[in-house]
């Protein structure tokens, strides 16, 4: 088997997750519905690392909500696997919409097991309607150059 020890971009932000018993389905691998949970954990960790937390969202009266997911399941993950869940901003229109990318690898061999991208739109917390991104979002969620 070929080994893929590369990230899709230079030096991505990532977290590590160990696959637990509750993530496994009847096929003895991570259930498809669990991967978006891993993505959410990585996205929030990245958002915090970029200097935005929930209190900042509240004070800005703005949040990012999912509009669309595109998911590619490449190799099954099993119980006990240590996964590196990377995320980065690939595109941001500076108005309402941005795309966040994900890549998951097995830590033991660097093989990419999953790729995804998610489109987020900015909404006002006070009314739930789409709104223009606050300048803090445009700055923090700047796209990386090498996508």
Automatic annotation (TrEMBL):
Pfam family, one: 4HBT_2
Bilayer-spanning residue ranges: none
Xref: InterPro entries: 4-hydroxybenzoyl-CoA_TE, HotDog_dom_sf
Domain of life: Bacteria
GO molecular function, one term: fatty acyl-CoA hydrolase activity
Name assigned to this protein: Thioesterase superfamily protein
Keywords in alphabetical order: Hydrolase
